[in-house]
Amino acid sequence: MLMLINGQRVPAASGKTFDNINPATGEVVCTVPAGEACDFERAALAAKAAQPAWADMPFYKRSEIIYKYTALVREHVEEIAQAACAEGGKRIDECRDEVLTLCMVFETFTEAAHHMYGNTIPLKAEARTENDIIFTVHEPLGTIVTITPFNFPIELYAHKVAPALITGNAVIAKPASDTPLATTMLTELLWEAGVPGGVMQLITGSGREIGKWLEETKLVDAVSFTGSTEVGSSLLASGAKEIRRTFLELGGNDPFVIFPDADLDLCVTEAIGGRAHNAGQVCCASKRYIVHESVKDAFAEKLVKALSALKLGNPADPANDMGPLINEKAAVAAMADIAHIIDQGATVLLGNKREGAYVWPTVLTDVSPENDVAKDLEVFAALFPIISFRTFDEALQIANQTSFGLASTVMTADMKTAMKFATKVQAGTCVINGTGDYRSVHQAFGGYKHSGLGREGTSTTLREVTQEKNIALKNILK
Ligand code: NAP
User: Fold this and answer.
1) Which terminus of the chain has fewer CB atoms gathered within 10 Å of its CB, N or C?
2) Is the CB of 210 under 6 A from ligand 1?
3) Any idea which fold 254-432 has?
4) pTM above 0.85, yes or no
5) Active-site positions?
């Protein structure tokens, strides 16, 4: 595969490449250009040159291009989904869903952009402006760099690229090195639909390279990043020099709190639906199971039984429930995390087993609130650590003791308990009687504390990727 710079398909200037490996089979999926600072700078110069004309294009014409784009993507769902399945080890049906979600996200942002109204300041509100009319319009920021992780390569690309393009920005996309192929195909289709080659570009290569380049360049107006808190924090620091807007969607270690009156069968279905999804590699998956001591054993027993029935195997075969992790290194790291949690006193009820990049669903009980996993250790695998509590306040304290705050779950039949929890939990989302692995395109998705800065969704992103300009018609009423 090649990078997409200024309307051309090009290798890295250095000629360097790396192989992308299918984690389920070990086969090479594609050879990827290893872009470096000079490639990014070239793309950023092209973006600066191309963006003003894109911003000047009437909005309804940009909309037509986006609708043409989603029609094209719908014609290619299967090949894009197969690419995503091969490069990322994600179940094929989840990959197909992700491509269709991308179409919905682009169309929804385009529709929402039709309603990005400006403001008219009340007439004659103060003596010194009483003959003036002041109103506002939204203008694009300029060039936005989008950096996405491996776990939702298509959906997260959509959440960043769609609002940026429809509002007249230029975009340079940097996909995760583990999942560059599907997003390259999707970017080529944007060109085919009519987005100019300098307005939408894609560079592959190591995250460290783009990090180094962003520390130096003056050509980028905003960065929209989804990934780890560590990298997000470094991007915020490097953007400070340029007063660069930096939007961050970061990690999570989300609580799933079960009160004694909860429907335990529903708890198990929701817990597995959220945590086995994408083999446990989901930012907003519930990652800590905080269960009332009176129902802890019953929940654990039902959970183990249901998880034991899951089938692991090649994600290209829809008969399998779970595929591998993104690569063997990630699987080894997840097993090391599990060993660490056990060292700190947890008892294994199920799993704790790995083969290649596959990690079996693992249930740990007797997890103390002092265990690292009960606080800030985010494990990217289908791991269910069970921590027990006695009182509402204790459950809330454990839920909030993490530095993260992405999503949360409360399971109970009592809406008063649910609402009390939902209003006190420090998280960007609280789902009542459902997994925190939950995202609507319209909600303001994002995190408290170290889980991020800013929100993504049609209710907020369009304002984040634009700036509001005041226009004053001085003495027009005189
Ligand atoms: P990561 O290491 O931070 O990588 C994410 C992206 O950043 C990749 O494209 C990566 O490129 C790039 N990158 C790496 N180092 C960089 C640097 N120094 N400067 C600039 N970019 C850099 O994250 P991950 O471990 O793959 O992803 C999992 C994390 O993302 C978890 O913490 C998860 O919770 C979080 N996440 C959050 C959300 C959300 O919406 N809040 C959604 C999904 C995931 P390379 O691939 O080339 O290294």
Assistant:
1) C
2) yes
3) Aldehyde Dehydrogenase; Chain A, domain 2 (3.40.309)
4) yes
5) 249, 283
